[in-house]
Amino acid sequence: MSDIVPYKDTKLERMAYTEIMRPSDLKLSIPRFYLHGPVHVGEFNQAGFVIVDRTPQPKPRWIGSDFIGGGMSERELEGTITDEERPYYKADLAALRFFALGRDLMGVFAKDKYLGMPMLRKICEEGVVPREFDEEPIFPQGRDMNLNYSGSNTPTMLTPELDMLANIVVRQLEERSGHGYAVYPYVTYFQTQMYPHVMHTLETSVQEVVARFDEFARRFNVKQAHPEVKTNPLLTGA
């Protein structure tokens, strides 16, 4: 069962791992990618979660894109990092923050020329993860965001196993809400000894961003102005 957890001046739904994974989704072997902690869902069915990569390839191309890092080589990128950033660059592990938004909520951003993708990025990025994490959006500024989360249609290709795991989480959300989702991932690299600090920070940031979308929706009167946007009955009682 999901439960409701307080966060600042709002409430979020917390979905446990056992609610998301079906027996057919589980492997006997230890996977390269795994879902860390619960999935947090907001009033407008937006969700956030964290996936860990146990064996990342060298930055920046492990995700399958030469757009991460602006297309620079590993050596060129290494020359630009600071001492504070170095523990998050010379890494044994990587973690991704994922944010999933239903197409109905996405439509609110798409229809308003004063909001759009810059506002979405501001909600996901501004002040939530320390700069020294050297976090990168998988879909950098100037690239189209992913509106159909299936491998061959993404502007930046995810590795198949990561694509499959993210889709398992999104599938659960789609089945509950009855519509498709767009997904926005951000990645950071770090050394094993940084694991407790990094994962605590990313888990907190996920709750913060999901709550920000609810705050945005309330501020722009989304419930009344856009009745097509479905709300989360667990949080609204509807």
Topology:
Blueprint: E1 3-7, E2 10-15, H1 17-20, E3 33-41, E4 47-53, H2 74-78, E5 93-102, H3 103-111, H4 116-125, E6 136-137, H5 160-177, E7 181-190, H6 195-219, H7 222-225, H8 233-236
Antiparallel strand pairs: 1-2, 2-3, 3-4, 4-5, 5-7, 6-7
What distinguishing features does this structure have?
238 residues; alpha+beta; seven-stranded antiparallel beta sheet; 33% helix; globular
Q: How many helices in DSSP terms?
A: 8
Order of strands in the sheet with most strands: 1-2-3-4-5-7-6
Indicate the multimeric state: single chain
What integer is the average pLDDT?
80
Number of domains: 1
Our estimate of the beta-strand percent is: 15-25%
In short:
The protein has one domain. Helices cover 33% and strands 21% of the residues. It contains eight helices and seven strands.
